[in-house]
Amino acid sequence: MSVVGPADGVLEECEDAFAASAGMFAAACAELAAPEAAVMTHAQLEDLLGARMREVTRQLFQDHLTLRARDEVRREEVVDTAGVGRSRIERDRHRMLATVFGKVTVVRIAYRGTGVADLHPADAVLNLPDAMHSHGLARLAAIESARGSFADACERINAVTGSGIGRRQVQELAVSAAADIDAFYDVLVPAPCTDTTPLILSVDGKGVVIRPEALREDTARAAAAKGGNAMKTRLASGEKHGRKRMATLGAVYDAEPAPRTVDDIIADPDQQDDAHGAAPERRQGPKARSKWLCGSVIDTAAQVVAAVFDQAEHRDPGHRRCWVVLVHGARHQIDLIKAEAQQRGVDVHIIVDLIHVLEYLWRAAWCLHDSGDASAESWVARHARVLLDGGVQQTAAALEEAVRAAELRDAQRKGIDEAVNYLTGKAEHLRYDTALGRGWPIATGIIEGACRHLVII
Questions:
Q1: pTM of the model
Q2: How far apart are CA 204 and CA 293, in angstroms?
Q3: Full strand arrangement of the beta sheet holding 348-352
Q4: Among 190, 355, 363, 382, which residue's Cα sits nearest to residue 285?
Q5: How far apart are CA 146 and CA 178, in angstroms?
Q6: Distance separating alpha carbons of residues 109 and 84, to the nearest angstrom
Q7: Are strands 288-296 and 244-255 parallel, antiparallel or unpaired?
Q8: Residue 407: which region, alpha, beta or left (left: phi > 0; alpha: psi -120 to 50)?
Q9: Residue in 301, 309, 292, 308 with CA at minimum distance from that of residue 331
Q10: Residues 80 and 119 sit within 8 Å (Cβ to Cβ)
Q11: Which residues pair with 205 in a beta bridge?
């Protein structure tokens, strides 16, 4: 005679509740043990197991939900936040839930009242979304939408989950996720900082191609003057002009000082590595923390700059910290920043992004070197090192001397003339020696990352 204990009873109950998923798993095992599987490649086995196990997992999810529905206990009365009760019930109320494993059905008790919406307490226990798609799918939609088009996001999500989600649904989930951004930043509390922690601000613009019906009146007229598109499926080179609207983005973050030297930024091209061929170790720059980002294609650049300064003042209302503003060098942005700083009575140190300045040096280099000439890299490095050491005027003078020595004329010297004009015009914002000595950042990587993931919806 055998005795069935409590554990055995639980096991039998578990076997009954998950019999469907267990049967699917057994079928998958049998399929792998069959002679046909013995000649499969590893890639074929991956595809087979991916499909079978996704379905097994979906069925496990469904079996669990069925078990919950079976064990749901009726409540005497359910009361909403307004104090209105529901005493009547309807069992076996169904709703669909699309998960990262596939679609499942949620069955639960509906509590009903006269003239009021039904309530489902089991939905609250499961924290179900209002719509059909699970929070897991919504999270994937938000992540993938920031990486490319909604169509690409839809394709990637379906390839990973097999959920069969559509492009419009991905778009709606991304919009829903973005709706909480402002509220998130409103409650964001930056980590405490001392007065010695620099406060970093950054502003940049990003041109966004706008659908014809959303163009402003002046831009629409400019686009119409260009005529129709040359291609059916996309805009060709040059056709985007007159069809863009400028989105302005801003960033604010804290960064502990990290003093560096020129050698930490750009190695001396004339100095050999050590005997083992290893380059000297470079000190790392300041690390951003407590990042705050904003952006708009509707608000003006002045409004975005004001929002950036609002956030900065929220972190440093007494203006006790050092404010560093990183920009790309656009004159109108610098003018807006200076005007906002003056209005608020705060001193700011404006620094033009080093990477942007290096592009001007590269344009100058191609005036003196053939295309693909490897020596141009060393030429740029030498001048950049002088620039980093505070030699703005020295660098500009060296470029003008190079023009005279090479006897360049007209279009041949255009790149050097542009670089000289840029360096002399922005000299007050190119004090990289001061920035490096005080441990400030000198590049706009944070705002560049925001521009790269900009999604207009």
A1: 0.65
A2: 11
A3: 288-296, 244-255, 199-209, 323-327, 348-352
A4: 355
A5: 11
A6: 18
A7: antiparallel
A8: left
A9: 301
A10: yes
A11: 248
Say if residues 447 and 204 touch (Cβ distance below 8 Å): yes
Residue that has been written with the tokens 């226990």 in this structure: 125
Q: Which two tokens stand for residue 44?
A: 């074929």
For residue 346, the one-letter residue type is: V
pLDDT digits (tens, 9 = 90+) for 254-293: 999 999 999 999 999 988 665 555 667 889 999 999 989 8
Task: For residue 409, give Cα distances in angstroms to 133, 406, 412.
Answer: 65, 9, 5
Q: Quick check: 100 and 136 in contact, CB under 8 A?
A: yes
Residue 119 near residue 132, CB atoms below 8 Å: no
Q: In sequence order, which residues have a C-beta less than 8 Å from that of residue 450 and are 6 or more positions away?
A: 204, 249, 251, 293, 295
Residue with tokens 């490096």: 436
Tokens of 385: 């090192």
CB 174 within 8 A of CB 142: yes
| pLDDT, tens digit, 9 for 90 and up, residues 23-52 | 999 999 999 999 999 999 999 999 999 999
CA–CA distance, 27 with 40 (Å, rounded to integer): 17
